[in-house]
Each structure stands twice: as C-alpha cells, then as structure tokens.
C-alpha cells in the first residue's frame, strides 16, 4: 500500500504575520487589507488617511501637534505600507469610504448672518456664499482634510470674512467687481496648508486674513 505523499504547505506560519518586521504584514488594523504594502500610494489613498486623521483630531483622539505630524507623514508617504502605521491606533481605519465625505463643503448666508468657528470639518473644496448677508468663518481650529484646500468665496451684495490658520500659505486666485477684496497671508512662507482662494465678489466684501499664533 502506497501512502500519499504529504505536500508541504505553502501557507506562511502565523508567527510570520504577527512579526511586524515582515514586509508583507497585513492585519485587521491595516486600512488597505489585501493590498501589497510596497504598492505606490495614490492621492486618493493619502486623502482617505487624512480624513481618518481629521476625524481623530475632531473627536480628541489626536492632539493638534500629533495631527500635524501625521498629516505631514501622510502626504510624504510613497507606498501603502508607509500609510498603514499612521492610523493603526485609530478606530474606523478598516472601514474607509471609497470617496471622501469631506471632499466638498458648502455654507451659504442668504439675507442672514452666519458665524462658524471652533472645531469643524472643512472640505477639500469649501464653498462659502454670502448673498445680502454676512458669513464669518474661522478656520483656525477647523479640521482640514489635506495639505491643500480650495476656498471658493462668492459674495453678492454681502460680506464674507474668513480667518485662516496662522501658519497657512494663501494663494489668491479670485476677482472682484465693484467690491472690496482683501486677501492676506501670501507673502510670508508658512509651514502649514496651502489655501487657494477663488470665487467672485460682486457689489460685496471679501476679507481673508491669518489668525494669530498661539
């Protein structure tokens, strides 16, 4: 009687997966389970990690310094493996949406006055509109989803005042007709996010300035 030859299993031992030095480690805490850690990260990958970090900042799981450090590492990451450790100790990293919920954000003041300040989640593209009203927005403590954010500011017979973080770099790309438009913060080289200001002022007022350092 010939006994069947027992083939050696090609399955890696469990210890291999538990060893954090293993280059191909994929655990339940890895937000890209199933992907090769050596795979090059895309902009969408970085944005999803930035969204998780922003939520962690908003809920108090990360301090502003920790958030800034991890956000810098996120947008400097080259591979998927570089991104995985940044959210390993945060909840929700394994259930990232295919698209960012904070991709776009809109706030409008029509025949009214709206003030938004404190900790809130801004969009990668945030549109602010003031029509016969006043809209005052402070981004100093807001959670920004990435290193570059576009502010589309539109004012028609209204007032729009925006405070950006003290370390932000500001690029003004908007225009005005029969209006006052004052955008500051573009001359000093900051180490914070790049904020592109677009949009139009028509018979209104748009003011963008830096907050004070704390």
Strand residues, percent? 25-35%
Number of domains: 2
Mean pLDDT: 78
The percent range for helix content is 10-25%
Low-confidence stretches: 3-34, 97-101
Biggest sheet character: 7 strands, parallel
Compute the CA-based radius of gyration.
23 Å
Distance between the termini: 83 Å
Description:
It is built from four helices and twelve strands. 18% of the residues lie in helices and 29% in strands. By secondary structure, it is α/β, with parallel strands linked by helices. Helix 2 (43-58) packs antiparallel against helix 3 (64-76). The chain folds into two domains: 15-95, no CATH class; 104-210, no CATH class. The longest helix has 16 residues, at 43-58. The protein has helices spanning 14-18, 43-58, 64-76, 80-83, and strands at residues 104-110, 113-116, 125-131, 134-138, 148-156, 159-164, 169-172, 175-177, 180-183, 194-198, 200-202, 205-210.
